[in-house]
């Protein structure tokens, strides 16, 4: 993956208008599932994770643009420190901040930011996050404060914020996917397990294990030739295996997969297919797999996103109405599904924009 965000930041508010038009069209008949907004005004919300007791939903908010900008005027990149880890009640209410002042990188309008993109609550209650990075050359040219956070795995809870391991350094030294000349790192998703963490490095096309401060390679997510599969999301299955969702933007519509990892050094196997730009995976209490797709038409990026439930028997049901570039997935004990919506937008957009003031949200889907 040759950029620091899950999509290139050349996509801005003006290029997203088609998605609003599609998602605003009335449905022919009322669908059984329903969606409500749990929180709004969030800056580029990404992955979500429920605490073990189900009482707190954690959200990684990648932030928005800062004041330190560089690059050509029409495609500037701006560095700031507005990334946060938030905590919400699944029943609603104002979010509270768990960790703040985290690295955020975006264009001047604040859309398609990247920063703390992943979050996970472990079985012991600890909460961890990972921060975006890039190539070693790119990172060496940014401010020292930003360098200190880029590519790091952090523990957000219990406080204080604690640096656990350097993810990008592993890729710079090892070039995990073996693509010549490509040692780009973009830690994007994290999964906190009992005594260890698993990290999906979207830039490296790699799944990494972290024990203490030691980083090792669990699996490489390869495509044919130089195809970038881009692992974007992680979940622990009811079988205690790790499941990986692929963005697979370059593969085209319907070509993204959910993979299953059964152990270190074992090649991943395909668990489910037929998706487009997977950005979230999670399992429900009955063993159903839930898959979030950023969009259902990668060619135009104009279709709504979607959340699909796959039962253990293989039956699929989907929900898409009102989902605009959703990311992340978490499932409560009652089957409610939590995802980030408008996940590539700052907390507010101009009233004159296609989004008419809308911004990042976390939504709750019932009845899927």
From TrEMBL:
Transport recorded as keyword: no
Record-linked InterPro entries: 6-blade_b-propeller_TolB-like, Quino_amine_DH_bsu, ScyD/ScyE-like, TAT_signal
Signal sequence range: 1-31
Keyword list, A-Z: Signal
Keyword Transcription recorded: no
Protein name: ScyD/ScyE family protein
